[in-house]
Amino acid sequence: MHKYDIIIIGSGPGGYVAALRAAKEGKKTAVVEDRGIGGTCLHRGCIPSKTMLQHAEVLHQVEQSAAWGIETGNVSFSYPSMLKQKETVVSQLEAGITALMKKGKIDVIHGFGTVNDNKEVTVEQKDENVTLHAPAVIAAAGTSPFVPPVKGLRETAHVTSDTIFEKTELPSSLLIVGGGVVGVEYACLFAGLHVDVTIVEMQQDILAGEDKDAAALLRNSLEKQGVTVETNAVLDDVDTGTENAVTARYTDKNGITKTEEVNDVLVTAGRRPNNSLLEETSVQYNDGFIQVNENMETRVPGLYVIGDLADGGWKLAHAASAEGISAVEHACGLQPSIHTSLIPRCIYTFPEIASVGMTEEEARKTGYDVKTEVIPMQGNGKAMAMGAKEGFTKIIADKKHGEILGAVLAGPHVTEMIGEAAAYIHLEGTIEELASMVHPHPTLLENLFEAAHSWLGREIHH
Amino acid sequence: MAKEIFMPKLSSTMESGTILQWIKNEGDPVDMGEPVFEVMSDKINIEVEAYEEGFLLKKYYNVDDVVPVNTVVGYIGEKDEEVPDTPPGNTENSESKAEPEPDQNETVADDSSSSVTQIEQGQIRATPAARRVAKEEGADLSDMTGSGPKQRIQQQDVHEFVQNAQKTPKATPLARKWAEEQNADLNTVEGSGPGGKIYTKDLSAAQNDTVSAEPDRIPVKGIRKVVADRMTESAAAVPHVTLYSDVDMTELVRMRSRLQDKIIEQTGAKLSYTEIMMKAAASALERHPYINASLSPDQQEILLHRDVNLGLAVATEQGLVVPVLHHAQHKGLVELVKESKQLAADARNQQLKPQQMQGGTFTISNLGMYAVDGFTPIINQPEAAILGVGQMKETPVGENGSVVLRPMTTFSLSFDHRVVDGAPAAAFLTELKQLLEDPYELLM
Q1: B132 lies in a domain?
Q2: In the Enzyme Commission scheme, what number(s) does this protein have (chain A) (predicted)?
Q3: Are B78 and B27 in contact (CB under 8 A)?
Q4: Are A285 and A260 within one domain?
């Protein structure tokens, strides 16, 4: 049996960051991974989709730039080359993480790992199983795409975020099942590459749980991009149609059954926890996710679960990293140095949507005396110059102290900008401080400043 | 009139400075605040600024010259103004003796309209003393506002800054607003942020820990004030001794129940134990006059009172009052019942007349209705003693070689040892005990 101080199962942004943190504390650390180092985020999630979204955005800008006097002649693109470029980015990052592991003297053990209550980790390998032991084991096995039990769907050729980029041929039409964050990002990506996209969403609106104004703005924008958005709609059945096509039937919000023949069906209907590695433990489950305390520790002392697999919290890469750091610090007997409660949320659509803190609804429910200010992007000089005027800046603050409770940004580059609002909330700056801080001009962020002034009833431009 | 430029004293140990360079030449116009020359002490290099506007009229020393502090190194004045050809006498001795501290030197330099101030590489204007103190205190000059000329930071500014920094700990803006609203002192809160910065969660934690709800406030006045003053005075001035005695109440209980109907018939009120105790105390006091006594106000005489005027401690909503039942030694149980019931009622209704509260010679305080076994009463001055009565409860006592249960009550007698000694006080308490245990004598 191989002895370690800390063993981490899963090398996604939760697991590998936890491993690096543990190594920094001088702990003998092992990471168990049965697929590529970097996990879903690097291989099947954030990074591939963001790289491809970048390609779609540039293509869109080039096409748009004709109106600005940029003459390119016929614009065309190669989908296989784009995929290749995406692969280059992924392998560069993977090499980077591998190098960091090496530098931290972290053992990377390939194979499917399971754990028991004694914190013995068994790794299935080709010839024989390897057993490891550590006083602290962190399970960071993440989640997998969920394919709902729609008639014919599981049997019919369909893709998920795991497999979408395996095909080197760009579909000409795509039905996306589920209009959550993942679904709308892929919708923007493929619409940007001129694919005929339809979203079928069961809920009343896309982006359930997110800011309603942002969801409405995005829906409008998706439709302008040529995406058909069917909400309150139920996918009835899926059938293999003619060659290289799938026939999907769904009932729309008016109860009318529609039939659509598409090249591909992309299922983005949520994700299920990869919890089989914990079968031999006595951890507690909530709908398949593992219950943990504020230090990410399960009811089994020394056994931690972080990231998507843990019950509660945001299922986001950076949330997993933060939780990984907290778990390692707790396992090392340190005071957790990271606040896992404030997690910014980014949606990489066209336009982007980013938010942090509470939504207006949550803030009211919590009992705050809420005042919300919304500044549209239209009047912003930088946005005009960029030709990207879609969007708004929303600031949610408590009337009593001007405490900033939440912010929602929609528009270009807002995923980069949400950090300012997050910093204000994290450092407990109030609306007065935000209004008193000079913002550079011309920038998109000026709208945050403007919103603060507006909130205080002393608008400058509005 | 031309003003001198002095070699500044940049530290308490600096005796001389080396001129590194003249930034202005003779005849150059000089603006206020412009550096004139650069000087090196044993510790720092500093550019010495003009404190006057005009022209540099004279340079008395060359580069690399070592010049004692407070020596005139040049003049600034009107163009072509006359100045001495040689430097005037060294002022170092007189000034440094009078003002040994560097910051005071600064002040003196200012007063004498010397045209120096310093500016270091960092471009923050600060006196050398201010720099020294800032370094000692680990304070950042760039955080401070100077009160000196041209916002130059003086030593005093640093002291104030450090004091204020101690007064106002690091806290987030939101935490400050919370603290202000809740009147919380941030100094008492331990911050969990970097460098002890206080976040709102620290404030709520501190409140849960230490802050309790605001108490109700009742002014100490009226009866409360009287009780407070008199008890303090008595406890402080009177050497108290307390004696305890357990009294078997069997006969007293029996007698009371026998008399009860008659008393109710005659008075309409019930005979309480207190009234029987009063009767017993009055009898015992008659026989032990040194207990029914007080010390004269000048403390020169002991007054043995001929009348037994019994004070009765009564709890009212407003506090403790002690109405007095006069001439108790002449009164039978019927009168005692009538009078003491009336007094108690008047006391509770706040209807006592002044004369009903005066002239007491002995006080009885009965807490027997509570779960109190015994207590140490404080003497109601100027009386010589006070009787405390605890609850009556069935207690095993030894009797003729066996243990029997008896209704027992603890009586405590606090007496003023200035007036009476232990043995006579004990004799009184013993007499009282006998009267209570065999109360029929009281009826005689």
Answers
A1: no
A2: 1.8.1.4
A3: no
A4: no
Whether A359 maps to a domain, the answer reads yes
Q: How far is the C-alpha of B432 from the C-alpha of A399, rounded, in Å?
A: 73
Q: Residue A138 pairs with which residues in a beta bridge?
A: A8, A304
Per-residue pLDDT tens digits for A428-456? 999 999 999 999 999 999 999 999 999 99
**Residues A429 and A369 occupy one common structural domain:** yes
Same domain for B230 and B376, yes or no, is yes
Backbone phi and psi for residue B17, each to the nearest 5 degrees, phi listed first: -130, 150
A426 and chain B in contact, CB less than 8 A: no
CATH code at position B411 = 3.30.559.10
Asked whether residue B116 falls in the same domain as residue B177, the answer is no
Same domain, B268 and B395: yes
Q: Which residue of A has its CA nearest to B172?
A: A428
Residue B364: inside a domain: yes
State the catalytic residue, choosing from B159, B240, B327, B417.
B417
Residues A138, A17 share a domain: yes
**Is some CB atom of chain B closer than 8 A to the CB atom of A430?**
yes
| Rounded average pLDDT over A215-240 | 95
Contact: B177, A433; criterion CB under 8 Å? no
Q: Is the peptide bond before B354 cis (omega within 30 degrees of 0)?
A: no
- Cα gap A426→B197, rounded to integer Å: 13
Whether residue A270 is annotated as binding a ligand: the answer is yes
Please give the residue range of the domain that contains residue A247: 159-269
- Contact with chain B for residue A308, Cβ under 8 A: no
> How far apart, in whole angstroms, are the C-alpha atoms of residue B13 and residue B1?
32
Chain A residues closer than 8 Å to B199 by CB: 428
Residue A423 counted as domain residue: yes
Contacts of A403 in chain B (CB under 8 A): 174
Note whether A89 and A47 are within 8 A (CB): yes
| Domain with B190 in it | 169-210
Interface predicted TM-score (ipTM) over 0.85: no
Looking at the structure, do residues A239 and A296 belong to the same domain, yes or no? Answer: no
Q: List residues of chain B with CB under 8 Å from any CB of chain A.
A: 172-175, 177-178, 181, 199-200
- CATH number of A418's domain: 3.30.390.30
CB B25 within 8 A of CB B92: no
| Known catalytic residue at A439 | no
Q: Does residue B99 sit in the same domain as residue B200?
A: no
Peptide bond into A440 cis (omega under 30): no
Q: Given an 8 Å threshold on Cβ–Cβ distance, is A432 in contact with B173? A: yes
| HEC per residue, A232-280 | CCEEEEEEECCCCCEEEEEECCCCCEEEEEECEEEECCCEEECCHHHCE
**Same-domain check for residues A366 and A405:** yes
Structural domains of chain A, count: 3
Q: How many CB pairs under 8 A join A and B?
A: 21
From start to end of B292-349, where are the E strands? Answer: 293-295, 302-304, 310-312, 314-316, 319-321, 324-325
Q: Please name the helix (run of DSSP H) or strand (run of DSSP E) that holds residue B173, with its range, or none.
A: helix B173-182
A357 and chain B: CB distance < 8 Å anywhere?
no
pLDDT of res. A309: 97
Total of domains in chain B: 3
